[in-house]
Design a protein that fits this description.
The protein is α/β, with parallel strands linked by helices and 558 residues long. Helix content is 34%, strand content 26%. A seven-stranded mixed sheet has the order 2-6-5-3-4-9-8, with helices on both faces.
Length: 558
């Protein structure tokens, strides 16, 4: 089929600046005239440059509203700009980990991922476009800056507006464009990822969990995001788990009115079922499949930091790591330091990095990192260059199969070996940006006042001696880049910490992280909120968050 190339005059939009997770805005923003077209054109020209003509790209997303419209635009602009081939998931669906897997497997030039991750979907929700580079990971800062500069100077779109392609069935579509042939290959969304998981885990052993007289009863919640097809194929078809082991597995444009963020607040459906005590293992995934929540029987909550640490302790049970060896661990700075203690016990390196993907990617590409995690429910390994929720759940099941202990028993055993890093996070969502800036400015004053180090703070019957207060900075050991102002840390001599950060691209979310370390085994099974309450009260008092924001309670508590 022959299609015509047209050039259309356009004008730039303000604030099309992508982060490490791409450009995220409300759907209505992307629906403005040429808004999406501008960003796609700028991304192609800025990220690929001289390599654009003849390039091959992966395209897919999490199924949220506007995804198919955006894919249509990507196809039309890619064809007109000399891209030779797009590989697209059937119905446009590909999880973020699956995209990374495919980029690396087929050694293509990059990928478009249509997702806003754990943000709400639907007509009134959010949408996002992320570009991943040839290593399978999100575009680094140099590339995202180049994309932003291109959006600010764009004046012309090169597009094939009459090119249309059916994504409903797996097929190869060929089009004749002025510069040559353009191909769209629609592929099974799941196959390549499932094959990779079979290379990492012992599927034959995992099948044993769901066979015999005492099969594991589990419940996996895809929250109507993109992991549904992956969960059905892997856990039901490949491993033989019964159909009632999964819920909310149909990808929906509005995620079935779920907020697809796998935490105790937004995964309430799963939590409430798990509280009944009928299931030994539960997990939930976010919209695009790179985050996960893990629960034991009776909704026993495994914090992301504990999940990372327990998996790090048991990597020898996973065939992939027996073959590759363990190269090191990493966590984002706000994540509790449980994995640090595992690393010390094993004699492994452990990196504390700023929040943001590129820091993990640099370490993995340099062969310095095997497993990593973020307190925002992201866990992954060097098998791809993204976080991977389904991988994390398979890793947990591999440990459960080998150890024949419950989730709770594994955690208690771990705490007796390493002590417990109690952790909680308070999110104050939708705050006024000025209020957030004022709060951080006040905390920076505390940091600047060096005389406060060694001071004693009292909260209830607890006393804390300040070891250090700083605004976290990081020098990357690979590229020597320096990242400053990554969050205010208040660190006490007993290894307890209070951390403050701002996040958000529109309204501001103020995040308050509380960590307290305990080596006394009599505390291990106490509720984290009870153990941490003196630190929580101290954090609220130091920050004056209620006064500055008018918020009496956080939106989300983790």
């Amino acid at each position: 089929m022959s299609v015509k190339v047209q050039q259309i005059i356009t004008t730039p939009y303000e604030e099309q600046k992508p982060g490490t997770s791409g450009l995220r805005k409300n759907v209505s923003v992307f629906q403005q005239e040429n808004y999406t077209e501008n960003y796609v054109q700028a991304t192609l020209t800025a990220s690929l440059g001289d390599r654009l003509k003849g390039s091959v790209l992966i395209v897919g997303g999490d199924g949220r509203y506007y995804m198919l419209d955006a894919i249509k635009i990507i196809i039309q602009i890619a064809a007109a700009n000399g891209v030779s081939k797009l590989i697209i998931g059937q119905n446009g669906l590909l999880s973020t980990p699956a995209v990374s897997c495919m980029v690396r497997k087929y050694r293509v030039d990059g990928a478009f991922i249509l997702t806003a991750s754990h943000n709400p979907g639907g007509k009134e929700g959010d949408f996002g476009i992320k570009f991943n580079t040839a290593n399978g990971g999100p575009a680094p800062e140099g590339v995202t800056n180049a994309i932003y500069n291109a959006t600010r100077n764009i004046s012309l779109l090169t597009i094939c507006p009459d090119l249309h392609c059916d994504l409903d069935i797996q097929a190869i579509h060929k089009f004749q464009v002025s510069h040559g042939q353009f191909v769209v290959q629609v592929v099974d969304s799941v196959n390549d990822y499932v094959q990779k998981m079979k290379e990492i885990f012992d599927f034959q052993a995992l099948k044993g969990l769901f066979a015999g007289n005492y099969p594991l009863k589990m419940l996996l919640d895809s929250m109507n995001g993109v992991t549904g097809p992956y969960v059905k194929r892997i856990f039901l078809e490949e491993l033989g788990a019964p159909p009632f082991s999964v819920q909310n597995v149909d990808p929906l444009e509005d995620f079935g009115d779920h907020h697809p963020d796998p935490n105790l607040t937004y995964a309430a459906d799963l939590v409430n079922v798990m509280k009944r005590g009928e299931h030994a293992f539960g997990a939930a995934f976010d919209g695009d499949g790179d985050r996960n929540l893990v629960l034991g029987q009776n909704a026993f909550f495994v914090t992301p930091s504990d999940s990372l640490a327990v998996l790090a302790s048991h990597l020898h049970l996973i065939p992939y790591f027996r073959n590759t060896g363990v190269k090191g661990y990493a966590r984002s700075m706000p994540t509790a330091g449980a994995v640090d203690r595992v690393a010390r016990a094993q004699g492994q390196e452990c990196y504390e990095v700023p929040t943001g993907w590129k820091f993990f990617g640099c370490l993995m590409d340099a062969g310095r990192l095997s497993v990593f995690g973020e307190e925002s429910f992201g866990t992954g390994s060097d098998h791809i260059r993204e976080k991977d929720g389904v991988w994390a759940v398979l890793a947990w099941l591999q440990v459960l199969e080998a150890r024949r202990k419950s989730v709770r028993e594994l955690l208690i055993e771990h705490w007796h070996l390493h002590g417990r890093n109690f952790f909680t996070r308070y999110d104050y969502e939708g705050c006024d940006a000025e209020d957030g800036d004022r709060l951080m400015d006040n905390l920076q004053t505390l940091v600047n006042d060096g005389t406060t180090e060694g001071s004693t703070f009292t909260s209830g019957d607890k006393k804390y001696t300040l070891a250090k207060a700083d605004n976290f900075s990081y020098t990357d050991p690979i590229d020597n880049s320096v990242s400053t102002n990554q969050g205010i840390r208040i660190i006490f001599t007993d290894d307890s910490r209070i951390v403050f950060r701002l996040s958000g691209t529109g309204s501001t979310t103020i995040r308050l992280y509380i960590e307290g370390y305990e080596s006394d085994s009599t505390t291990f099974e106490k509720d984290a909120k009870v153990v941490l309450q003196p630190l929580i009260n101290l954090a609220l008092d130091i920050s004056k968050i209620k006064v500055l924001t008018g918020r009496q309670e956080p939106t989300v508590i983790i």
